[in-house]
Design a protein that fits this description.
This protein is mostly helical. The chain has two domains: 51 residues, no CATH class; 222 residues, Rhomboid-like fold (Up-down Bundle). The protein has ten helices and two strands. Strand 1 and strand 2 form a beta hairpin. It starts with a strand and ends with a helix. The N terminus is likely disordered. It is a multi-pass membrane protein. It comes from Oppiella nova.
Length: 276
């Protein structure tokens, strides 16, 4: 089959050509929705080569899925809210705060398939396009900053609960996307719609977590603090590390404010855990 692309006849039955065409269309769409300036969009669409590929989000997603399957087989079953491997060496536990790896590695565990599904879905739909635009290093920084903020925030403000899941990192990605929209709002496609969508998704999930924490009589202690502190980390670190394609002088001030806020919060939480 032949179709006309830019005035030329192209054979779409060629598998390699079909893959290249699909990749180019996806890259063009991502550039259209995530970049502000038309010149940046064109340059991104023409120059993006998938080298290096956006491996961070894919890798972390597959890792979390693999751990869930492993503990599923170990526990002998799965439910919307379980199993929760409370004896795992990765889970964050307030009685084992001296094992500092738990402040980060709790992200590989999840409390049930609903928890896992939401996190993996957001990671792929939001995190992967962000990684393709901003690069793996920047998005990994945002994600891990959210994970760390989630555990540190929980250790300070909700110190009696165990913590599993990548919600801190996921909310950091959502907030980073929000930061991306705010930085380039005037030129973003459907900027208002994106802001509303992010706020609706985030507030709904946090609302459910708060309900499970305080109202639902059969629910275990679900920490919503990790969601909020992860979002704060994503918003601040997102303003710092994401590419701003139209930086102005006042945004440099915002950069320093964001760095100061995140640094002060992390330092306070670390000192709190050391002396309490």
């Amino acid at each position: 089959m032949f179709v006309s692309i830019l005035g030329s006849d192209v054979n779409t039955t060629d598998p390699k050509l079909s893959v290249d065409t699909c990749l180019h269309a996806m890259v063009k769409a991502i550039g259209h929705h995530f970049l502000a300036d038309e010149r940046d969009r064109k340059y991104y669409a023409d120059s993006y080569s998938c080298r290096p590929p956006p491996l961070f989000i894919v890798t972390i997603t597959l890792t979390e899925l693999a751990f869930f399957i492993f503990y599923w087989t170990q526990e002998g079953g799965v439910s919307p809210s379980g199993p929760v491997p409370v004896d795992s060496m990765f889970i964050y536990r307030p009685d084992k705060r001296s094992e500092i790896w738990r402040f980060v590695l709790y992200l590989v565990l999840h409390a049930g398939w609903v928890h896992l599904f939401f996190n993996l879905l957001v990671q792929m739909l939001v995190g992967l396009p962000l990684e393709m635009v901003h690069g793996s290093t920047r998005i990994a920084t945002v994600y891990m900053a959210g994970v760390l903020a989630g555990s540190l925030g929980t250790s300070v403000f909700d110190s009696d609960v165990y913590l599993v899941g990548a919600s801190g990192g996921v909310y950091a990605l959502l907030a980073a996307h929000l930061a991306n929209v705010l930085l380039n709002y005037n030129h973003m496609v459907s900027g208002t719609l994106r802001l509303v969508a992010v706020l609706v998704v985030a507030s709904t999930d946090v609302g459910i977590a708060i309900y499970d924490r305080y109202v639902h009589p059969n629910a275990g202690p679900v920490s919503y603090v990790a969601h909020l502190t992860g979002a704060l980390a994503g918003l601040t670190i997102g303003l710092i590390v994401l590419k701003n394609f139209e930086q102005k002088l006042h945004e440099q001030l915002i950069w320093w404010i964001a760095l100061g806020v995140y640094g002060a919060c992390v330092l306070f939480a670390i000192l709190y855990n050391i002396f309490n």
